[in-house]
Amino acid sequence: MDIKEVIQKRYSCRSYKDTPVSEEKLKSILEAAQLAPSASNRQPYKFIIVKDKGKREKLAEAAGQSFIAEAPIVIAGVSLEPERIMSCEVPTYAVDIAIAMEHIALQACAEGLGSCWIGAFSQQEAKKILGVPEEYKVVALMPIGYSADFQGLKEKKDLEELADYEKFKI
Fold first, then answer.
1. Rounded to 10 degrees, what is the CA torsion of 36, 139, 62, 19?
2. Separation of alpha carbons 151 and 147, rounded Å
3. 3-state SS, one letter per residue, for the chain
4. Mind listing the pLDDT tens digit for each residue in 20-75?
5. What superfamily in CATH does domain 3-162 come from?
């Protein structure tokens, strides 16, 4: 699959088969995250790979989204520098983790797997489940596994609605 095909096929999978993901595919996915750019190439994050069913169930409960527990793997993106702000006044972690997690989502798709960005969850519960120290921040959870429900691609806005040239327009 070329990159455009991967981008077109990636979708938010919310139902997973009970089929394990090979270590080879998982390594490929993590290598994609490792290659992601980050501010000053600091890579100020860690990824926690959760395979334990009990922990996946607890994360699903912390997110109020039961399908998370169906996936054989959940990857949590954790910022090690949640207080760092770029000169443009945007938190660095929000950008750095987003890029790395999207690399994970795209590589998962290229490996024939489904994934789903999860940003709605209890920060405190996720930290407790994953053993993340208080000074760090769990930014996203991403269940990964074989899709049980491909629902097709969602409609997207026209480019004319999304892209302005030279200056912002309403």
1. 0
2. 10
3. CCHHHHHHHCCECCCECCCCCCHHHHHHHHHHHHCCCCHHHCCCEEEEEECCHHHHHHHHHHHCCHHHHHCCEEEEEEECCCCCECCCCCEHHHHHHHHHHHHHHHHHHHCCCEECCECCCCHHHHHHHHCCCCCCEEEEEEEEECECCCCCCCCCCCHHHHCCCCCCCC
4. 999 999 999 999 999 999 999 999 999 999 999 999 999 999 999 999 999 999 99
5. NADH Oxidase (3.40.109.10)
